[in-house]
Design a protein that fits this description.
The complex is a heterodimer of chains A (329) and B (629). With 329 residues, chain A is an all-alpha fold. Chain A contains twelve helices and four strands; from the N terminus they run H-H-H-H-E-E-H-H-H-E-E-H-H-H-H-H. Chain A has one domain: MetI-like fold. In chain B, strands 15-19-14-18-16-17 form a six-stranded mixed sheet. Chain B has a five-stranded mixed sheet with strand order 10-11-12-3-13, covered by helices on one side. The longest helix of chain B has 17 residues. Chain B starts with a helix and ends with a strand. Classes of the chains: A mainly alpha (329), B alpha+beta (629).
C-alpha cells in the first residue's frame, strides 16, 4: 500500500479490513467506529461539549436573556471609575452577570461569550467546510489521475502550505474597503475570514485525501469497477468517496480547533469582526491591558477558547482511533 | 524678573495675526496635535509683560513652597526639593521624539525637556501653580522691550553664554535659529512657525535651506552687535514674549547646522549636552562642561543628575511597573499612567501619596463632519449631541481621575474665556435618546435618503486604534447612539497616520463618509485664538491632508467673532468674545465635547524637585534629579 506522509492514522477500507471473526461480520465501518467511539469516554465527553457549544452558539439570544442581559448594553455603573475594576471584585460576577462584566464599559461577559461562540464556531466551521470542499476535490483529482495533474496540484499545495497565512490575512483585511463583493461591514469581514482561512487550510485535507486516493485506486475493487467499464466519475463518487469519508471526517474535526485558534488570533490582532460584535480573540485583546487588576475578564474568554479547542481535539482524536483498524477495541 | 518688576508690569495692547501662514502648511497641522497641551491660559488671557526688566546677573528669589509628597502635592508645591547633584536619572518614553532638534519639534514633552539642552530667549518660570504661568528671561536679560507703537520688540542676550564647545552664543545665532525653524519648513517641517506669521518679511525669505546665501535673511529680525536682537512685526502682538519662549529660539550656530540631520549633532546651549541619541532606542544626556552658570541668574539650568538616560519606545505598562518598582524614575510622556497602574496607585495610600492628578489642558471630543451627509444638516448634528452618554464615555476614558471631568464646552476650565454652559443638557449627562430621536425626525424630514428603510441612520466613527481609551470611548458612544436609532460603525486607524491619511485627510473622509471622528486637542497658545483657531476655522482645514479641523467646520459668525477678538484689547471683553465663539460652535453642534482631560502621574520617592508645570500641563522635566542615598 502506498504510504501517505501526513497520515499517521492510515486507513484501510472496509472491504478487506474486516477481521475473520464472524461476530462483527456484516457491520458497516461507521457502525464499528461508532461502537468504538462510544466506549471512548474522553472522546464522548469532547463530543458532548462540542454539541453543547454548538447549541449555546445557536441559542445565544435566548440563553443570554435568561440572565436578563444582551451583549452590547453598557453597565458603566458597575465599574469603579477610579480603580477601573468592577465593584465588588471577582470581575463583577453577580446574580445578573454570571461571568462578570468587561472593562471599561461593563458589558455582560456571559452574553458576549455566547455571541462570541457564534463568531468563533461559525467562522471556523464554515471555513473548514470551504477547506474540505477544495481539499477533497483537488486531492481526489490529484490522487486518482496522477501524472502531471498530480504534479501540478501537489506543487500548488506546497505553495499554499508555505504561504505566510497570518501576514496575508492581516494585509488583505487591511486593504479591503468597507464595501466589496456586495457585502459590507461585518458581513464582509465574516466572508473574508471564512474565505481566507478556508482557502489556506485546504492543502492539509487535500494531501491526506490525495494519499488515500493513491492507495485506494490500486485496490481490487477499484480495478474491478474499472474493468467493468465504469467511468472515472463513477469510480470516484461510488467507489472511492465512501472510503474517504472517514479520514475526511477525522481531519475536519481536527481542523476546526486550528481554525478557531486562527480566528481568535486574527481577532486578537484587530482584523476580526468589528466592534461591538463580540469575539473571543478580541475580548482577550481588550482584557490583557487590565489582567493584573481584573484577571477574571481575561480568564473567561481564554477558558472558552481552551475548552472549545480541547473538546474538538479530543473528539477528533477519538474519531481517528475509532476509524483506525489497527486500534484496540 | 523680580516680584516687584512683575507688579509694574505693563499690559500691552493685544492683537493677533489674522493672516495665517499655517493654512499653507499641511504637515504642521497634524503634528500640532502631538503637542498635547501646550500653553495654559493666563488668568487674564494676556500675559503680563514686564518692561522694567531685571538685568542679567541679578538674582531672583525662589519663594515657592516645598513639601514631602502627598496626593496632588506636586500641583502646588515642589516635592522633595534638593540641590543634590549626582546619580543617573532614568527616564522612559512610550514613543520617540518627533525630532530632538529644538527647531523641529511639536511634542509637549519635547518642549518641556528642551530646557535641558537649549536656552530659549525666555522661559516659563519653574514653579507649580499660577507662578508657573509667568515668563522669565533665559538667554535674554529681560522679558523684552516693546516700542511704543507695539511693532518692535528688542531683546538683549546675556553676556558670556557659550555652547557646549565653548564658543560664544551670539544674537546672530538666535536669528538663524528662528529663521531655520520658521522659514525653513521645507526641511524642518515639524515645529510651529508663529514667527513667520508676525514678522515683517520684505524679501519673502525662503529659509536657509532653499536660500543658501548666508547674507540673506528675514528682514523682520535685526541683529545689533553680538547681544541685541530686534523683531519688527507687521502688527501689534502683545503675546510676543510667548513666542520668545518657544524652544526654536534656542541658538543654533549656522556653521554647525546640517538641516534635517542636525538632530544627530545638536550643539547644546543648555546645562546638558546630548552624548548619544539612537532613534527609537535611547537618548543619553550628560552635563555640558562649558555651561556658564553665572549667565543663568534665574537658575533655570541647574545640573542635577550626572547622566540622564531616556529609553525610547517602551510599552506603557512596562514603564508603569518599572516606575512603581523603583527601576525607573520618570515617565517622560507626561500623560499619565495606564489603567492597571492607576488602579494599583489609587488602591495603595503609599503609592497614591506619590501621585498627582491634574488637568492636562487638553479636551477630548468628537467632531461631527459638517460636509458629510446628513450632518450638513444641523438637526442631524444636534441629534448626536443629545444622544451621547458622557458618563459612559468618561468611564471609558479612565474615570474622573484617569480620564477627566465631563466636558460641555470647547474651552477647558483653565482657559481664559471659559464660561460654564451646556447647550445640550441631558439628565445626568447620560444622554437623552428621546430628544435625540426628535432632532433625528426633523433631520429625516430634510434628508430622507440618508436613512435606512427601517428608519435608522448609519454613520462611521473614526478612532485611533492604538489608543485604547479612545477606542473604548468610541464603543461607549456607539452604544449610546444605538438607543437613538443611530447605528455607528467604528473605523480604527493608526494614530501616526490619523491626520495625514485618514480622519484629517479630506478626500478619504468624504469618500468613506466618515461622519464622526474622535479627537483630542491641547491649546497651542494661551488664549481662545491659540486654542480654537486650528480646530474650528478654515485655518485647520488643509485640502490635501493634515487637517486638524476634522469636522470641516466653518462659520462666518465664528470668523467674525475671531476678527473681533483679535482687534479687542480689553481682557474682559476678549473673554466674552471667547465664550461667544465657544457658544456659537456648540450652537452649530460641530463638536461633542467629552472630557476635560486629567492625567494621573506617579513620581517615585527618590525623584527630587518634582512639580507639575502649569504652562505645559505636565511635570517639569527640566529640574528633576535623584536623591543621593
Amino acid at each position: 500500500m502506498t504510504i501517505t506522509r501526513e497520515s499517521d492514522g492510515t486507513f484501510i477500507p472496509a472491504a478487506d479490513a474486516a477481521p475473520a471473526s464472524p461476530a462483527i461480520e456484516g457491520r458497516s465501518l461507521g457502525r464499528i467506529a461508532w461502537n468504538r467511539l462510544k466506549q471512548d469516554r474522553i472522546a464522548m465527553a469532547g463530543g458532548v461539549v462540542v454539541v453543547l457549544l454548538i447549541l449555546a452558539a445557536v441559542l445565544a439570544g435566548p440563553l443570554s436573556s435568561l440572565s436578563g442581559n444582551d451583549p452590547d448594553t453598557l453597565h458603566n455603573k458597575l465599574i469603579d471609575p477610579n480603580y477601573q475594576i468592577p465593584y465588588g471584585g471577582m470581575g463583577g460576577i453577580s446574580g445578573s452577570h454570571w461571568l462578570g462584566v468587561d472593562l471599561p464599559n461593563g458589558r455582560d461577559i456571559f452574553s458576549r461569550i455566547l455571541y462570541g461562540a457564534r463568531i468563533s464556531l461559525g467562522i471556523a466551521g464554515v471555513s473548514t467546510l470551504v477547506a474540505i470542499a477544495i481539499g477533497v476535490l483537488l486531492g481526489v483529482t490529484a490522487g486518482y489521475f496522477g501524472g502531471w495533474i498530480d504534479a501540478v496540484i501537489s506543487r500548488v499545495m506546497d505553495v499554499f502550505l508555505a504561504f505566510p497565512l497570518l501576514l496575508f490575512s492581516i494585509a488583505i483585511i487591511g486593504v479591503l474597503p468597507d464595501d466589496a463583493f456586495g457585502l459590507s461591514g461585518n458581513g464582509l469581514r465574516f466572508g473574508v475570514l471564512v474565505v481566507v482561512i478556508g482557502f489556506f487550510s485546504w492543502p492539509y485535507i487535500g494531501r491526506i485525501v490525495r494519499g488515500q486516493t493513491i492507495a485506494l485506486r490500486e485496490r481490487e475493487f477499484v480495478a474491478a469497477a474499472r474493468s467493468l467499464g465504469a467511468r472515472p466519475s463513477r469510480i470516484i463518487l461510488r467507489e472511492l468517496m465512501p472510503n474517504l469519508l472517514a479520514p475526511i471526517l477525522v481531519y475536519a474535526t481536527l481542523l476546526i480547533p486550528a481554525n478557531i485558534l486562527f480566528e481568535a488570533g486574527l481577532s486578537f490582532l484587530g482584523v476580526g469582526v468589528k466592534d461591538p460584535t463580540p469575539s473571543w480573540g478580541a475580548m482577550i485583546n481588550s482584557a490583557i491591558s487590565t489582567f493584573q487588576i481584573d484577571p477574571e475578564y481575561l480568564i473567561v474568554p481564554g477558558t472558552a477558547i481552551f475548552i472549545t479547542v480541547l473538546a474538538f481535539n479530543l473528539l477528533g482524536d477519538g474519531l481517528r482511533d475509532a476509524f483506525d483498524p489497527k486500534g484496540s477495541r | 524678573m523680580s516680584a516687584a518688576a512683575r507688579d509694574e508690569a505693563r499690559i500691552t495692547a493685544t492683537t493677533h495675526p489674522v493672516n495665517s501662514r499655517h493654512s499653507n502648511s499641511h504637515t504642521e497641522g497634524f503634528l500640532r496635535t502631538m503637542r498635547k497641551s501646550k500653553l495654559i491660559a493666563a488668568a487674564a488671557g494676556v500675559i503680563a509683560v514686564a518692561t522694567a526688566a531685571s538685568a542679567c546677573g541679578s538674582s531672583s528669589s525662589g519663594g515657592v513652597n516645598s513639601s514631602t509628597s502627598s496626593f496632588n502635592a506636586g500641583m502646588t508645591t515642589i516635592v522633595n526639593p534638593s540641590s543634590h547633584q549626582g546619580g543617573v536619572l532614568r527616564m522612559a518614553l512610550v514613543s520617540d521624539w518627533d525630532s530632538m532638534d529644538l527647531g523641529n519639534t511639536y511634542d509637549a514633552f519635547a518642549w518641556d525637556f528642551a530646557r535641558l539642552y537649549g536656552r530659549s530667549l525666555l522661559s516659563w518660570k519653574q514653579a507649580p501653580g499660577s507662578a508657573g504661568l509667568q515668563l522669565v528671561p533665559d538667554l535674554a536679560t529681560d522679558n523684552g522691550e516693546v516700542s511704543p507703537d507695539g511693532l518692535t520688540w528688542t531683546f538683549h542676550l546675556c553676556d558670556g553664554a557659550t555652547y557646549q564647545d565653548g564658543s560664544a552664543i551670539t544674537a546672530a545665532d538666535v536669528k538663524y535659529a528662528i529663521e531655520r525653524s520658521n522659514f525653513g519648513q521645507d526641511t524642518l517641517q515639524f515645529g510651529p512657525n508663529y514667527f513667520a506669521k508676525v514678522l515683517q518679511d520684505k524679501t519673502s525669505y525662503q529659509g536657509p535651506y532653499l536660500d543658501k546665501n548666508a547674507a540673506d535673511g528675514v528682514s523682520g529680525i535685526e541683529v545689533d552687535g553680538t547681544d541685541t536682537i530686534k523683531f519688527h512685526l507687521t502688527k501689534k502682538f502683545s503675546d510676543f514674549p510667548e513666542l520668545a519662549a518657544l524652544p526654536s529660539t534656542a541658538p543654533v550656530p549656522r556653521a554647525k547646522d546640517t538641516g534635517a540631520n542636525y538632530f544627530k549633532s545638536i550643539v547644546s546651549s543648555g546645562q546638558y549636552e546630548i552624548s548619544s541619541y539612537q532613534p527609537g532606542k535611547e537618548a543619553v544626556l550628560v552635563p555640558n562642561p562649558n555651561f556658564k552658570a553665572d549667565t543663568d541668574p534665574e537658575g533655570i539650568h541647574k545640573v542635577t543628575a550626572d547622566k540622564i538616560d531616556v529609553q525610547l519606545n517602551v510599552n506603557q505598562d512596562q514603564i508603569d511597573q518599572e516606575l512603581l518598582h523603583g527601576q525607573l524614575d520618570v515617565d517622560l510622556d507626561g500623560t499619565g499612567v495606564g489603567t492597571t497602574a492607576q488602579s494599583q496607585i489609587l488602591a495603595n495610600p503609599t503609592l497614591k501619596a506619590q501621585a498627582d492628578d491634574g488637568y492636562t489642558n487638553a479636551l477630548t471630543y468628537m467632531t461631527i463632519n459638517t460636509q458629510v451627509k446628513p450632518f450638513d444638516n444641523v438637526d442631524c448634528r444636534r441629534a448626536i449631541e443629545y444622544a451621547v452618554d458622557k458618563t459612559t464615555v468618561q468611564s471609558a476614558l479612565g474615570g474622573a481621575l484617569g480620564g477627566g471631568d465631563i466636558a460641555t464646552t470647547l474651552l477647558t476650565p483653565d482657559m481664559a474665556g471659559y464660561a460654564q454652559s451646556n447647550r445640550y443638557p441631558t439628565p445626568g449627562n447620560q444622554g437623552d435618546p428621546q430628544q435625540a430621536q426628535q432632532e433625528l425626525q426633523t433631520c429625516k424630514g430634510a434628508e430622507p435618503n440618508q436613512f435606512n428603510n427601517s428608519g435608522s441612520l448609519t454613520v462611521k466613527l473614526s478612532a485611533r486604534a492604538d489608543r485604547p481609551k479612545e477606542v473604548n470611548a468610541a464603543i461607549a458612544i456607539q452604544a449610546a447612539l444605538k438607543l437613538a436609532n443611530i447605528n455607528v460603525e467604528i473605523d480604527k486607524y493608526p494614530s501616526n497616520k490619523y491626520f495625514g491619511s485618514f480622519a484629517g485627510n479630506d478626500s478619504f473622509v468624504k469618500s468613506n463618509k466618515i461622519g464622526l471622528s474622535m479627537m483630542k486637542w491641547g491649546a497651542d497658545w494661551p488664549d481662545v485664538f491659540g486654542d480654537l483657531d486650528q480646530v474650528v476655522t478654515p485655518d485647520g482645514i488643509h485640502p490635501g491632508s493634515g487637517s486638524t479641523n476634522l469636522g470641516d467646520y466653518t462659520s462666518p459668525q465664528v470668523q467674525n467673532l475671531f476678527a473681533q477678538y483679535l482687534s479687542t484689547t480689553d481682557a474682559a471683553a476678549r473673554n466674552k468674545i471667547g465664550a461667544a465663539i465657544d457658544q456659537q460652535v456648540m450652537d452649530d453642534a460641530a463638536v461633542v465635547p467629552l472630557a476635560y482631560n486629567k492625567a494621573l502621574i506617579y513620581h517615585p520617592a527618590n525623584v527630587t524637585n518634582w512639580f507639575e508645570q502649569p504652562s505645559f500641563g505636565e511635570p517639569d522635566f527640566s529640574v528633576l534629579g535623584v536623591s543621593g542615598s
